[in-house]
Amino acid sequence: MDFINAYSPDHLTFLLEGFWVTLKVAFISIVLSFIIGGIFGILRYAKIPVISQIVAVIVETIRNLPLLLIIFFTYFALPEIGLKLEIVPAAIVALTVFESAMISEVIRSGLNSIEKGQMEAARSSGLSYVQALRYVILPQALRRMVPPMVSQFISLLKDTSLAVVISLPELMHHGQIIYAQNINYFVPILLLVAIMYFVVNYTLSILARRLELKQG
After folding, report:
1. Three-class DSSP category at 84
2. pLDDT tens digits, residue range 57-109?
């Protein structure tokens, strides 16, 4: 194990470049999946005839597929029907699709956790269904959703490493390039990569735990 040469300035810079791609892809995917998952979760909660059932089928199908399969499909299969995506957009699309299904369930569960009497009371006070959902149900549900949502975002950040199969230039990919040069770099580089993932994910975990305590 050659820690000194493995942690040369050039290697560290290269790893940080990969880590930046990891964070960028994760952040964009989180934002998009929160928006799409939110819409899907609300549609399922609202139980709109036909639409809610269609959304439920889509969500359950995606949730029961491996993320790796979705990544392969997005990058290799979509071009067969004329939708060719570059590596970074393909990774973002795949992660967003998968995570949207997960987030939609978090949101639906959060909405369902609010007592039905809350909606009935809001409606009886003269609010429309949409107004009751926006001003009464959602604010309460969001507080309960935050901890599990943070946990999902932690999982998404870790899942970006799966996109190494399509050569996404993220942290793990850059780590592989470095230790491929010299087998003595293998353990030092993997150790450093693990620490970088750990620092970010552990910080988010602490945040999630604090939010859970506040909810308690």
Report:
1. coil
2. 999 999 999 999 999 999 999 999 889 999 999 999 999 999 999 999 999 99
Q: Where are the alpha helices (DSSP H) in 47-115?
A: 51-63, 67-72, 87-112
Neighbours of 63 (CB within 10 A): 13
pTM of the predicted structure, to 2 decimals: 0.89
Say how many C-beta atoms besides its own lie within 10 A of residue 103's C-beta. Answer: 27
Nearest to residue 215, comparing CAs of 152, 115, 144, 113? 144
Asked if 178 and 189 touch (Cβ cutoff 8 Å), the reply is yes
What one-letter code names the amino acid at 146? V
Q: Cα dihedral sign for 48, 49, 51, 56?
A: positive
Burial state string for 165-184 with b = 16 or more CB within 10 A and e = fewer than 16 = ebebbbbbbbbbebbeeeee
